[in-house]
Structure formats: C-alpha cells, structure tokens
Specification:
The chain is mainly alpha-helical. It is 46% helix and 8% strand. A hairpin with a 5-residue loop joins strand 5 and strand 6.
Length: 335
C-alpha cells in the first residue's frame, strides 16, 4: 500500500514539474516573441481610431503585418500596464520594431505631424477655404464663422482629422491669447471690452505687415479714439465692400485700387463715415497685433500714410500728413 502511494506521489510530482517547466518555457518563448523585432523592411503608416482598445489595435497591427500574435501583443500590453494608455492618431511604424517598442510609440503618442500655416490677416472665409484645400483633412460642413475668432498660427493635425477639429483648436487658441493680452493691457485705454480690443487688432493687422510698426499704428488709432476723431482706415471700407470675401487675383482684395467714391459707401464698417470702431473685426489678427492693440506706443501721432518702402510715415499735424501724402502719391505715380 505504501508503495502504491509512493508511485502516485512520484507521478504527481513528475507531472507538476513537467507542467511548471512547460509554463516556464512558454513564458520565456512569449517574452522573447514580445521583444523580438518584426520582419518589416519599410515604414508602415497606421491609424489608431479614437476609443480603440488594445485588442482593436492588435488587429490593425496584424492586418499590416507588424505583429503575428495579437494575443501576445494584447497580454504584453496588459502586463506592462500600457494597454489603457494607447493614444489615437496616425503613426509611422519604423522597420524592425518589437511589439514592446510599438507599444512604447503608441503610448507616447508619437503621431505623424502634418502642419498647416494660417498667416495673419486672413478673413474667416479665406481660412476655411484654405483648410478645405489642405491635404488629408476631412472636409465637413462648416457654419459661417465669426470674423476674428481664429488665431493665425501653424497648426499640427493628423490624417483623419476634420476641418472642424482644426477650427476648434484655432478658436481656443484665439480665446487664450485674447484673455492673456487683456489681462496684461495698459491702463486707461478707450477700449471697454475684449471684443473692442479684437476689432482694433484686426484693423492694425490690415494696416501694416511690419511687426515693429504694430504698436505705433495702434497708438495712432488710440489717439484718434481719445479725441473722438474718425479712424478713417481704408481696410474697414474694403471689408464693407467685400463682406470678408476678398478677391485673390493678385490685384488686391477688390481686384482694383480703392477709389474716392468707395469712401462714401454707407456701412457701419466705413470708418470714414462713422466714428469709433466698426461693429466687428475685419480679419483674424495675430498675437502681435492683439498685444499691440492693448499696449499701444505712447506718442502724439494722429496720421500715417505709406512711405513707399513698405512702412509708413507718421505725422502729428494735418500739414505734416499732407506733405507725406504728396510724397507717397509721387512715389506711386512713378511705379
């Protein structure tokens, strides 16, 4: 009887040992498989959808030939606690990466970055048209956007994102910049609200493309507002005529020069007829123009006109200004 139990016990120990060895061997094989480089020779681009779990990601990788064992990838991700940290987006998976290395890429969110640059001074209509022509951005129906609501900047996006996704980031960026500039504004400005600051910034943006002139131009308009003078700025008249949909044919936003008769157009945007700021922004100003509107240069200039070099000549009196205008007309006539 004792012999019988010895045989049974011996067999149990033998089987247990073999089982443990099998498990250990299997675990070692899985570990090696998890850390083994794949055989892909060229980069492969994949898109991880929003909300995808690790099982779904494993299927995507399997379809692209980047892994050959979804089970090992899935369990490896759970054991390393990376399974719940994978980020959506477009990824370029380089050749010879292991499952562990692919998980590292997806956890860190190293997505393929595509960029679109929105230059200062574009209207919302122009920005939407530009985004519609941007490669790899999905076109969706966009409701008319408020003028001045989008911050000109370079924005990154991933394949599969929509125009609305980028616009949302532009709106958030504009609000953030406006809030920061408003908090750091100069005291005693004749600007009661952030909206008024944005309107002035949009005029500054259209009046000069030279960054060093932003604060000086701002000072001119602030001086005029304080004196109750008409702003008399051409870009507001152009906006009244184009409704924010300028021509882009190389001949200016009107397709021609602004004429004296244009200055008589009856529109609240015509600052030759109506005092104070127009009812809304005339473009989407950049950070520099916004900061200049709220921190103008202190001086006594109340006039400025183009000087022929790309900048402007500033004047304190009408007589000085008329002389500058005469010089500009002579330069323009000889062009």
């Amino acid at each position: 009887m004792k012999l019988f139990f010895k045989i049974i016990l011996g067999g149990f120990v033998l089987l247990s040992t073999m089982g443990l060895l099998g498990v250990a061997g299997g675990s070692l094989w899985a570990y090696q498989k998890f850390n083994m480089p794949n055989t892909i020779e060229r980069p492969v681009t994949i898109i991880v959808p929003r909300g995808a779990n690790i099982g779904g990601v494993a299927d995507i990788l399997l379809d692209e030939g980047l892994i050959d064992s979804p089970m090992i990838f899935t369990y490896g991700g759970r054991l390393t606690e990376q399974a719940s940290k994978l980020k959506a987006g477009e990824y370029e998976i380089l050749p010879r990466l292991s499952m562990k290395q692919i998980l590292d890429v997806l956890e860190k969110g190293k997505t393929v970055q595509r960029n679109v640059t929105i230059r200062e001074g574009l209207t919302s209509h122009e920005i939407v048209n530009l985004l519609m022509q941007t490669s790899e951005l999905k076109t969706v129906r966009i409701e008319p956007l408020a003028e001045g609501s989008l911050l000109p900047e370079t924005y990154s996006y991933s394949k599969g994102e929509t125009i609305a996704d980028v616009i949302g980031r532009m709106e958030s960026a504009m609000q953030k910049v406006l809030d920061e500039a408003w908090a750091a504004r100069s005291p005693d400005l004749p600007l009661k609200t952030k909206e008024e600051a944005l309107i002035l910034a949009s005029i500054i943006e259209k009046e000069t493309a030279i960054g060093l002139e932003h604060r000086k131009v701002s000072g001119v308009f602030i001086n005029r507002l304080r004196k109750g003078m008409l702003l008399q700025t051409d870009p507001t008249v152009i906006y009244a005529l184009t409704k924010g949909k300028p021509k882009n044919e190389g001949k200016g936003p009107l397709g021609r020069r602004l004429l004296l008769k244009d200055l008589k157009v009856d529109s609240p945007y015509n600052t030759y007829r109506y005092a104070g700021l127009p009812p809304g922004p005339i473009t989407n100003p950049g950070r520099a123009a916004i900061e200049a509107a709220l921190n103008p240069e202190e001086h006594r200039y109340i006039y400025f006109v183009a000087d022929g070099s790309g900048g402007h000549a500033f004047a304190r009196t009408l007589s000085e200004h008329n002389n500058n205008v005469a010089k500009w007309r002579k330069i323009r006539k000889n062009k």
